[in-house]
Design goal:
single chain; alpha/beta; eight-stranded mixed β-sheet; 10 helices
Length: 318
Amino acid sequence: MKNLSIQFATPRGSLRAVQGVDLDLREGETLGLVGESGSGKSTLALGILRLLPLNGSWTADKISILGQDIASMPEPELSRSVRWVKIAYVPQAAMNALDPLYRVGDQFIETVQAHVKMSREEILKKASTLLEYIGVESSRLHNYPWELSGGQKQRVMIALALILDPKVIILDEPTTALDTIIQAQILELFKQLRTYEKLSSIFISHDISVIANVADKVGVMYAGSLVELATVSQIFENPIHPYTQGLRESVPDVRESRPFNFIRGSPPDLVNPPSGCRFHPRCPYAAEICSKVDPPLEKYAESHYAACHFADKWVKQA
C-alpha cells in the first residue's frame, strides 16, 4: 500500500482521518497497528477494502495483493475476487456483527454465497471443520447468536472470516469487550491461526501490550499518520517516537520498577489539525521546528522507521 489517504465530508469541513500511509505485509507475517481511539486504525483497514461510508473518500498511489492492483479495481470485481476471498475482515465489536435473527449456519451460507458459488452442504461442512478447529462445537451452527457466549461469538466471527481461505485477515480490536480470561484464549487462538496456511494478518488494537503478544512488526498511528514502524522487539526495546515511548510507558509492568506514566492531553481535531507534527502539542520534547514542519517517516535503523525531527537522539541512546 502506497500513500493511502482517507477523508470524510462533515458539516465542519473535511476530516482527514488517514494521511499518506505506506505499508507492506509479507506472507505469514502479522502487522500490529496500535494507537489511541481516533488515530485512524480502523479507517485504514476499511480503506484497504474500500468499505468506507458514503461521506468517505480515499486516494492511493497503489494498493495491491499478490501483484493484483485493487486500488483501480471495479466494485463488482473487488467484491467477487478480493473481499473475503483474498482479504477478510473481522470488524470492531465483532460480537455484534452477527445477525441475531439468523442461525449461525445460515450466516455462513449467506456470506459465502455472496462471493462464490458453493452449495449449502459444502459450506456447512467446511464451517463445521473450522468451528471445531477454533474450539467451538460444530452443533453451534444450529444456534442463534444470542445463544452463544461472547467468546464463542468472537470465535465464530474469526471462523467466518476464514471460510474462503483468504491470504490476509484483518482483525479490528478482537479482544475488546471480552473479560481477561477470554482475551487470553482469543490471543492464544490467534497465535495458532498464524500457521493456518501461512495466513498473513493485520491486528488492530489500542493496547500496545496486546500487540506485543501477537505481532512481528508494529505500526504506530497518531492522528491519521504512521509515526513509527518497526519490529516488535525494536518498538519495545528502543521506541524512537515520543508517542510510542508514551504508549509503552503507560502500560504498567510488574516485572519492572519503572514509574507509571501516561500521555497528557488529547488527540487533535482532525478537521483542524495542528500545524507541523500533529503530536507536538502533547510532546514533552517539542521544539519550534515541530510546530512548523511535519517530519517525514524516515529510516533510522534496519527495519525501523520514525517520523520525528529528533529521532537521532533516541537512536543514539539505544
